Amino acid sequence: MKKYISAVLAAAMLCGLCSCGEKVKSESAGQTPTEASTETSAETTEAATDASEAAESSASAEAATTAPAATTAVSPDSAPEGADLSVFHSNADGAVVFDAPAGDQSDATLIAAAQLLYNSAHDTSLRFSVGCPYDVDTNTTVKGSFDWDFCLVTEEGINSVADVKADYHRVFSTKYPDHIEETYMDSNGRVYALCGGRGSDILYVKSEVISYDGKTDDELFFTVRSYYDGSDWGDEAYTVDHSFSAVIDADGTWRAGVFTLPN
Question: What is d(CA 243, CA 11) in angstroms, rounded to the nearest whole number?
Protein backbone atom coordinates (compact mmCIF):
# COMPACT_ATOMS: atom_id res chain seq x y z
CA MET A 1 0.00 0.00 0.00
CA LYS A 2 2.81 2.39 0.87
CA LYS A 3 4.39 1.60 -2.47
CA TYR A 4 1.12 2.48 -4.26
CA ILE A 5 0.79 5.82 -2.45
CA SER A 6 4.39 6.64 -3.23
CA ALA A 7 3.76 5.93 -6.92
CA VAL A 8 0.71 8.23 -7.03
CA LEU A 9 2.59 11.06 -5.31
CA ALA A 10 5.46 10.67 -7.75
CA ALA A 11 3.10 10.88 -10.74
CA ALA A 12 1.40 14.00 -9.37
CA MET A 13 4.76 15.70 -8.82
CA LEU A 14 5.81 14.82 -12.36
CA CYS A 15 2.63 16.41 -13.84
CA GLY A 16 3.19 19.52 -11.78
CA LEU A 17 6.73 19.82 -13.05
CA CYS A 18 5.52 19.48 -16.64
CA SER A 19 2.89 22.24 -16.16
CA CYS A 20 5.42 24.53 -14.55
CA GLY A 21 7.81 23.88 -17.38
CA GLU A 22 5.21 24.92 -19.94
CA LYS A 23 4.30 27.99 -17.92
CA VAL A 24 7.94 29.02 -17.59
CA LYS A 25 8.41 28.51 -21.29
CA SER A 26 5.45 30.78 -22.06
CA GLU A 27 6.46 33.40 -19.52
CA SER A 28 10.03 33.39 -20.83
CA ALA A 29 8.61 34.52 -24.15
CA GLY A 30 6.97 37.46 -22.42
CA GLN A 31 3.46 35.96 -22.47
CA THR A 32 1.17 34.13 -20.12
CA PRO A 33 -0.76 31.19 -21.64
CA THR A 34 -3.95 33.30 -21.62
CA GLU A 35 -2.25 36.17 -23.43
CA ALA A 36 -0.87 33.85 -26.08
CA SER A 37 -4.28 32.33 -26.68
CA THR A 38 -5.94 35.77 -26.87
CA GLU A 39 -3.38 37.16 -29.31
CA THR A 40 -3.57 34.10 -31.51
CA SER A 41 -7.36 34.39 -31.63
CA ALA A 42 -7.13 38.12 -32.42
CA GLU A 43 -4.62 37.50 -35.21
CA THR A 44 -6.87 34.82 -36.68
CA THR A 45 -9.93 37.11 -36.53
CA GLU A 46 -7.99 40.01 -38.08
CA ALA A 47 -6.71 37.80 -40.90
CA ALA A 48 -10.22 36.55 -41.59
CA THR A 49 -11.56 40.12 -41.62
CA ASP A 50 -8.82 41.27 -44.01
CA ALA A 51 -9.52 38.34 -46.32
CA SER A 52 -13.26 39.12 -46.29
CA GLU A 53 -12.66 42.82 -47.04
CA ALA A 54 -10.28 41.92 -49.85
CA ALA A 55 -12.87 39.59 -51.35
CA GLU A 56 -15.57 42.26 -51.13
CA SER A 57 -13.26 44.85 -52.70
CA SER A 58 -12.43 42.47 -55.54
CA ALA A 59 -16.11 41.73 -56.10
CA SER A 60 -16.94 45.44 -56.12
CA ALA A 61 -14.17 46.18 -58.60
CA GLU A 62 -15.37 43.39 -60.86
CA ALA A 63 -18.96 44.63 -60.66
CA ALA A 64 -17.85 48.17 -61.53
CA THR A 65 -15.97 46.85 -64.54
CA THR A 66 -18.76 44.67 -65.87
CA ALA A 67 -21.82 46.78 -64.94
CA PRO A 68 -23.79 48.06 -67.95
CA ALA A 69 -24.37 51.73 -68.64
CA ALA A 70 -27.11 53.40 -66.68
CA THR A 71 -30.54 52.93 -68.19
CA THR A 72 -34.03 54.26 -67.59
CA ALA A 73 -37.22 52.23 -67.84
CA VAL A 74 -40.70 53.49 -68.63
CA SER A 75 -42.99 53.78 -65.62
CA PRO A 76 -45.49 50.89 -65.47
CA ASP A 77 -48.37 53.19 -64.49
CA SER A 78 -47.92 55.23 -67.69
CA ALA A 79 -47.72 52.24 -70.04
CA PRO A 80 -50.73 51.03 -72.04
CA GLU A 81 -52.37 47.80 -70.96
CA GLY A 82 -50.59 44.75 -72.31
CA ALA A 83 -47.23 46.48 -72.93
CA ASP A 84 -44.15 44.37 -72.28
CA LEU A 85 -41.73 46.73 -70.52
CA SER A 86 -39.02 44.09 -70.24
CA VAL A 87 -38.01 44.13 -73.92
CA PHE A 88 -36.69 47.71 -74.22
CA HIS A 89 -34.87 50.37 -72.22
CA SER A 90 -33.42 53.86 -72.49
CA ASN A 91 -29.64 53.94 -72.87
CA ALA A 92 -27.30 56.40 -71.17
CA ASP A 93 -27.80 58.91 -74.02
CA GLY A 94 -31.59 58.86 -73.83
CA ALA A 95 -32.24 56.85 -76.99
CA VAL A 96 -34.36 53.68 -76.86
CA VAL A 97 -32.85 50.23 -77.34
CA PHE A 98 -34.82 47.02 -77.81
CA ASP A 99 -33.54 43.86 -76.16
CA ALA A 100 -35.82 41.72 -78.35
CA PRO A 101 -36.87 42.16 -82.01
CA ALA A 102 -39.09 45.26 -82.18
CA GLY A 103 -40.97 43.80 -85.14
CA ASP A 104 -42.29 41.01 -82.93
CA GLN A 105 -43.83 43.35 -80.33
CA SER A 106 -47.44 44.39 -79.82
CA ASP A 107 -48.74 47.88 -80.58
CA ALA A 108 -49.01 48.48 -76.82
CA THR A 109 -45.30 47.71 -76.35
CA LEU A 110 -44.32 49.95 -79.28
CA ILE A 111 -46.41 52.79 -77.82
CA ALA A 112 -44.73 52.36 -74.43
CA ALA A 113 -41.29 52.50 -76.06
CA ALA A 114 -42.34 55.57 -78.07
CA GLN A 115 -43.48 57.27 -74.85
CA LEU A 116 -40.06 56.69 -73.30
CA LEU A 117 -38.37 58.17 -76.38
CA TYR A 118 -40.83 61.08 -76.52
CA ASN A 119 -40.11 61.99 -72.89
CA SER A 120 -36.38 62.03 -73.65
CA ALA A 121 -36.91 64.11 -76.81
CA HIS A 122 -39.08 66.59 -74.92
CA ASP A 123 -36.43 67.06 -72.23
CA THR A 124 -33.60 67.34 -74.77
CA SER A 125 -35.48 69.86 -76.92
CA LEU A 126 -36.18 72.04 -73.89
CA ARG A 127 -32.56 71.96 -72.72
CA PHE A 128 -31.20 73.00 -76.11
CA SER A 129 -33.81 75.63 -77.00
CA VAL A 130 -34.73 77.19 -73.65
CA GLY A 131 -31.55 78.53 -72.07
CA CYS A 132 -28.44 76.40 -72.60
CA PRO A 133 -27.39 72.99 -71.22
CA TYR A 134 -23.71 74.06 -70.99
CA ASP A 135 -21.60 76.27 -68.76
CA VAL A 136 -21.22 79.71 -70.35
CA ASP A 137 -19.36 82.97 -69.75
CA THR A 138 -22.03 85.66 -69.95
CA ASN A 139 -19.35 88.37 -69.94
CA THR A 140 -17.81 87.15 -73.19
CA THR A 141 -20.22 87.61 -76.07
CA VAL A 142 -20.45 88.05 -79.83
CA LYS A 143 -23.25 89.55 -81.88
CA GLY A 144 -25.44 87.16 -83.81
CA SER A 145 -28.61 87.42 -85.84
CA PHE A 146 -30.81 90.41 -85.10
CA ASP A 147 -27.90 91.86 -83.12
CA TRP A 148 -28.52 89.42 -80.25
CA ASP A 149 -25.72 88.56 -77.82
CA PHE A 150 -24.39 85.01 -77.93
CA CYS A 151 -22.41 83.90 -74.83
CA LEU A 152 -19.18 81.90 -74.89
CA VAL A 153 -19.67 78.23 -74.08
CA THR A 154 -17.02 77.18 -71.55
CA GLU A 155 -18.11 73.56 -71.14
CA GLU A 156 -15.14 71.20 -71.59
CA GLY A 157 -15.28 69.35 -74.91
CA ILE A 158 -17.87 71.70 -76.47
CA ASN A 159 -15.90 73.93 -78.80
CA SER A 160 -18.00 74.14 -81.96
CA VAL A 161 -21.52 73.93 -83.32
CA ALA A 162 -20.58 70.44 -84.52
CA ASP A 163 -19.97 69.40 -80.90
CA VAL A 164 -23.38 70.75 -79.91
CA LYS A 165 -25.03 68.88 -82.77
CA ALA A 166 -23.31 65.64 -81.74
CA ASP A 167 -24.78 66.02 -78.25
CA TYR A 168 -28.24 66.82 -79.57
CA HIS A 169 -28.25 63.86 -81.94
CA ARG A 170 -27.67 61.40 -79.14
CA VAL A 171 -31.48 61.55 -78.83
CA PHE A 172 -32.62 63.07 -82.16
CA SER A 173 -32.04 61.43 -85.52
CA THR A 174 -29.96 63.21 -88.15
CA LYS A 175 -32.70 62.38 -90.65
CA TYR A 176 -34.48 65.66 -89.84
CA PRO A 177 -33.21 69.27 -89.53
CA ASP A 178 -32.09 70.19 -86.02
CA HIS A 179 -32.18 74.03 -86.08
CA ILE A 180 -29.15 74.15 -83.76
CA GLU A 181 -27.69 77.07 -85.77
CA GLU A 182 -30.60 79.23 -84.64
CA THR A 183 -29.30 79.28 -81.05
CA TYR A 184 -25.58 78.44 -81.42
CA MET A 185 -22.84 79.93 -83.58
CA ASP A 186 -19.13 79.48 -84.21
CA SER A 187 -16.81 82.48 -83.75
CA ASN A 188 -13.07 82.87 -83.12
CA GLY A 189 -12.57 79.13 -82.95
CA ARG A 190 -15.18 78.69 -80.19
CA VAL A 191 -18.92 78.14 -79.95
CA TYR A 192 -21.39 80.67 -78.53
CA ALA A 193 -24.95 80.13 -77.30
CA LEU A 194 -27.92 82.49 -77.44
CA CYS A 195 -29.01 81.44 -73.92
CA GLY A 196 -32.38 83.04 -74.46
CA GLY A 197 -35.46 81.58 -72.84
CA ARG A 198 -38.81 81.58 -74.52
CA GLY A 199 -42.17 81.65 -72.83
CA SER A 200 -43.69 78.39 -71.69
CA ASP A 201 -47.41 77.71 -71.96
CA ILE A 202 -48.52 77.66 -68.33
CA LEU A 203 -51.63 75.69 -69.31
CA TYR A 204 -49.60 72.70 -70.52
CA VAL A 205 -49.99 69.56 -68.39
CA LYS A 206 -48.46 66.55 -70.16
CA SER A 207 -48.15 64.64 -73.42
CA GLU A 208 -49.07 61.01 -74.10
CA VAL A 209 -48.45 58.76 -77.07
CA ILE A 210 -51.97 57.55 -77.83
CA SER A 211 -51.59 55.46 -80.99
CA TYR A 212 -49.20 53.60 -83.27
CA ASP A 213 -49.94 54.68 -86.84
CA GLY A 214 -47.63 52.57 -89.00
CA LYS A 215 -44.06 52.35 -90.26
CA THR A 216 -41.68 52.58 -93.18
CA ASP A 217 -38.41 50.69 -93.55
CA ASP A 218 -36.61 52.80 -90.96
CA GLU A 219 -39.29 54.79 -89.11
CA LEU A 220 -42.31 54.22 -86.89
CA PHE A 221 -45.08 56.83 -86.61
CA PHE A 222 -47.26 57.67 -83.64
CA THR A 223 -49.78 60.25 -82.49
CA VAL A 224 -49.02 62.29 -79.38
CA ARG A 225 -51.77 64.07 -77.49
CA SER A 226 -50.82 67.10 -75.38
CA TYR A 227 -53.14 68.14 -72.56
CA TYR A 228 -53.80 71.71 -71.45
CA ASP A 229 -55.74 72.88 -68.40
CA GLY A 230 -57.38 76.31 -68.39
CA SER A 231 -59.37 75.87 -65.18
CA ASP A 232 -57.28 78.40 -63.26
CA TRP A 233 -58.32 81.01 -65.84
CA GLY A 234 -61.91 80.00 -66.15
CA ASP A 235 -61.36 78.19 -69.43
CA GLU A 236 -62.07 74.60 -70.36
CA ALA A 237 -59.35 72.01 -70.68
CA TYR A 238 -58.36 71.04 -74.20
CA THR A 239 -55.98 68.77 -76.12
CA VAL A 240 -53.78 69.10 -79.19
CA ASP A 241 -52.56 66.14 -81.28
CA HIS A 242 -49.19 66.00 -83.05
CA SER A 243 -47.27 63.44 -85.06
CA PHE A 244 -44.19 61.83 -83.57
CA SER A 245 -41.80 59.33 -85.08
CA ALA A 246 -38.98 57.04 -84.03
CA VAL A 247 -36.19 56.62 -86.58
CA ILE A 248 -34.54 53.21 -86.40
CA ASP A 249 -30.76 53.33 -86.80
CA ALA A 250 -28.77 50.57 -88.46
CA ASP A 251 -28.05 49.02 -85.04
CA GLY A 252 -31.75 49.06 -84.11
CA THR A 253 -31.57 52.07 -81.77
CA TRP A 254 -34.58 54.39 -81.79
CA ARG A 255 -34.00 58.15 -82.02
CA ALA A 256 -36.62 60.89 -82.27
CA GLY A 257 -37.62 62.05 -85.76
CA VAL A 258 -40.79 64.06 -86.31
CA PHE A 259 -41.30 66.06 -83.11
CA THR A 260 -43.21 69.14 -81.95
CA LEU A 261 -42.34 70.75 -78.61
CA PRO A 262 -45.73 71.39 -76.97
CA ASN A 263 -44.71 74.18 -74.61
Answer: 104
